[in-house]
Specification:
mainly alpha, Rna Polymerase Sigma Factor, Chain: A, 178 residues
């Protein structure tokens, strides 16, 4: 896909609108997934997808192929998500965990609800960078290098942000583990 992205980017830079549409089609689901996981809100995620591709189009001349086009887009999407979080002063509550069983009993439903609530509250308390790094690593499966590139920080800073987020989640969940 990276080769076809390179070709499409070159064509889009030359003014081919269909090539840019192909890039949007190819990457919009991943950008939406990232935005939704960072905001917890479908409407906000859709707005971030639009803003991401608009910014990318306006800045396409600045794209250099040092990183993949997808990584470059993720960086823009992460920045759009962080901008939204900063403008609101906090993160909206999200439900990032799903029930492991199709038919859990009442005790499991109660415990699962408590875990989801605790995780959601804890994610809301993370800094924007910690949350973004955690989501990119544990929900999007990105490498430390990709996260660092997406967030515009060093690899050590990305690792540290992930570590802090995981430690905060562990501390918050510890009382629920029996």
């Amino acid at each position: 896909m990276e080769d076809s992205d390179s070709v499409a980017v070159a064509r889009a830079k030359a003014g081919d609108g269909d090539a840019y549409r192909a890039l949007v089609d190819r990457h919009s689901r991943g950008v939406f997934r990232l935005a939704f996981r960072m905001t917890g809100n479908e409407q906000d995620a859709e707005d971030i997808v639009q803003e991401t591709f608009l910014r990318a189009y306006k800045q396409l001349h600045r794209y250099e192929s040092r990183a993949s086009f997808g990584t470059w887009l993720y960086r823009i999407a992460a920045n759009c998500s962080l901008d939204l979080a900063r403008s609101r002063g906090r993160h909206p509550q999200t439900e990032l965990l799903e029930n492991a069983s199709n038919a859990p009993g009442p005790d499991r439903l109660l415990a699962g609800g408590e875990v989801r609530r605790t995780v959601s509250e804890t994610l809301d308390q993370l800094s924007a960078q910690e949350r973004a790094a955690f989501v990119l690593r544990h929900f999007e499966g990105q490498s430390i290098e990709e996260i660092a590139s997406s967030l515009g920080v060093s690899g050590a800073a990305a690792k540290h942000s992930i570590f802090r987020a995981v430690q905060k989640l562990r501390r918050a969940l510890e009382p629920l583990v029996t």
